Amino acid sequence: MNMPRKRGLAAAVACAFMLALATPALAGDAPTPVAVGARLAQDANEARLVFDLSLPIEAHVYALLSPDRIVVDLPEVNFQLSPTVGRPPAANETALVKAFRFGALAPGKSRIVIDLVRPACPTEVGSKPIVDGASASRLMIELKPCEAAAFAALERAAAPVATGPDPSPPTPLPVVVLDPGHGGADGGARGLGGVVEKTLVFEFCSELKRQLEATGRYSIGMTRSGDEYVGLDDRVTMARNANAALFISVHADTLSEASDVNGSTVYTAAERASDAEAARIAARENAADRTPGNERQAQADPGVADILFDLKRRETRAYAHIFSRGLVENLRGAARLNHNPERSAGFVVLKAPEFPSVLVELGYLSNAQDVQALSSLDWRTKTAAAMVKAIDAFFSGSTATAGAAGGRGVALGGGPTNDPGH
């Protein structure tokens, strides 16, 4: 097999060295390896997955069945990669690897998951210097076809031995922060029949929180626990302090001049709005903080000139788009969607670089059908269930239901996922 061992070598080495030098380590802390490139080459007899890294790392590999996957557990890695890299062109029936994803697993831990077309066992897993004597390294994962029994043995080898309590702490659940918009003196939009945005979105987030907690797969935070005012920056800070893996802000808009406009819309962050309507809504939501004594000071994001900050923000926004796409697809069967359901604008609450964020406008309070839906317990239950399905798909890296996921990672971890392996 003609493997592309040299293609892009110079660029990968230069980028890895740049990122290694640009990543300051606190006193006593080891620097975090940065992944700056990944590529897959395969044929019927072998597959080789390569990650270019700023530092060498140790890897632990095992298998999971039904569906067949190879899992590679790593120390914390900063994956500065587009999630699309893990979705190669459609493989033929003789290929070994269907796709791969990568991302954060838990604090200090990362994971690569390789989805297989048929059983394949690792013949080499480890990192080697890209250039002798340099810190920049290349993680090589080589796979070859193997019998189902050998593949199953690789899974059993990873199972914990039941000889007593596990001395290691449990893996933290990924944190999903729900942000019901407005609150307190800021009621938000007011609609037909006297409905108030702050009340409707809090009721929806409460139902979504209940359903997410029932799965046992997530730790759920809410930016407000009742009818209180919370500033926009404070909402982001809460999510940051909670180590959020995903942030979902929930709102409901109104248009006094267009009562026929209806349906749900999912927004992601962008410096320039996708359209005039998105710009208008972002301006209105951002203005919620302009209460006396709470004026926001316009300022540039700290460290915006720093290359790692900028790369991290791009990566996080890529994962936000992945989740947005999957969320829209899952909502199609549960709620009416706006004619343009995926949009972007400069929402203050979506600008954190540490975690993917979306803002969901559940509907328009100026539309009678939307008001009826948002006021219905049945609608809230069904729509929240669709959102749970989208969140599950995002954190599992399921490309089938998440649109184009790969990890929060799809990890996703970078993402999304905090557990991209299950």
Give the topology, please.
Layout: H1 9-22, E1 34-42, E2 47-53, E3 60-64, E4 69-75, E5 78-79, E6 97-106, E7 109-116, E8 120-129, E9 137-145, H2 148-156, E10 175-180, H3 197-215, E11 219-222, H4 232-241, E12 246-253, E13 264-269, H5 276-286, H6 307-331, E14 337-345, E15 357-364, H7 368-374, H8 377-396, H9 408-411
Parallel strand pairs: 1-5, 10-11, 10-12, 12-15, 13-14
Antiparallel strand pairs: 1-2, 2-9, 3-4, 4-7, 6-7, 8-9, 13-15
Helix pairs in contact: 3-8, 6-8
Question: What does this 3D model show about the protein?
Answer:
The chain has about 425 residues and is of the alpha/beta class. The chain has two domains: about 10-15 and about 30-155, Immunoglobulin-like (Sandwich); about 175-290 and about 305-410, Zn-dependent exopeptidases (Aminopeptidase, 3-Layer(aba) Sandwich), CATH 3.40.630. The protein contains nine helices and 15 strands. The strands form three sheets. A six-stranded mixed β-sheet has the order 11-10-12-15-13-14, with helices on both faces. Strand 1 (about 35-40) and strand 2 form a beta hairpin. Helix 3 (about 195-215) packs across helix 8 and helix 6 (about 305-330) packs across helix 8. The model is unreliable at about 1-15, about 15-30, about 160-170, about 290-305 and about 400-420 (pLDDT under 50).
